[in-house]
Design a protein that fits this description.
The chain has no helices and 17 strands. It is mostly beta strands and about 230 residues long.
Length: about 230
């Protein structure tokens, strides 16, 4: 399309036309399909599918680029977080806060030698990063048997975000099962639910305070037989 402008005064007299300005109209691409957001620890990985049609129903032609938008919470505004449009159909957004909800949408940019056209955002998807790193296991577990009880003691996990310790026990060669938990400030436990002459095996794990708690591997295993 080519456009010119003229001005008309109050007497109806028109000016000469302005310089001719050619304008190229490009149909914008439709939003990308299949936008997915997968949360990790302090990051969200996005993926999507390229659209196959333009908004006028014609097939996509020319190169496509993508702009990722992000907002915080369920209703906050979405703003672009990619400094330049992306060529790839995936993006990892890092440096986020765990346990905070983020919403994302993707816009498609049609790149043509004559012009560019940006489509509408995709429907928003939400993801909440969570801590996924397991704590370091407790160490140096020892067990001391006495009549009617077994006393356990261990060295704490070094992480500050440990919330609980879980105590596992098995009689003889059976599988270890969790029998108790204790707060992170405690590094001892007395098991009074024991029978004389029975050999018990013990191990301890650390559990953090993440929104979805992570449990460490088990400590060293020890045995004790109450008299």
């Amino acid at each position: 399309y080519v456009y010119v402008l003229t001005a008309t005064d109050s007497l109806g007299r028109s000016s000469p036309p302005s310089e001719r300005r050619p304008i190229t109209f490009l149909a914008a691409p439709k939003p990308p399909a299949g936008v997915e957001a997968r949360a990790g620890s302090r990051q969200v990985t996005l993926s999507w599918n390229a659209p196959g049609e333009l908004t006028d129903g014609s097939p996509v032609s020319g190169d496509l680029r993508y702009i990722v938008l992000r907002g915080t919470g369920s209703e906050g505004p979405l703003t672009a977080i990619t400094p330049q449009p992306l060529a790839a159909t995936s993006y990892t957004d890092g440096g986020l806060e765990n346990d905070t909800e983020y919403r994302y949408a993707v816009r498609v940019v049609r790149v043509d030698p004559r012009a560019t056209a940006t489509g509408a955002p995709s429907p928003a998807v939400a993801a909440t990063p969570v801590e996924t790193t397991r704590p370091t296991p407790p160490s140096n577990l020892v067990a001391i048997a006495s009549p009617g009880a077994v006393r356990l003691a261990w060295s704490p996990s070094p992480e500050a975000h440990v919330a609980l310790y879980a105590i596992y026990r098995a009689a003889g060669t059976s599988a270890l099962i969790r029998v108790a938990t204790t707060i992170s400030g405690n590094t001892t436990f007395i098991d009074r639910d024991v029978r004389p002459g029975t050999m018990y095996r013990y191990a301890v794990t650390a559990i953090d305070n993440a929104r979805r708690p992570n449990e460490s591997a088990r400590s060293n295993e020890v045995t004790a037989t109450p008299p």
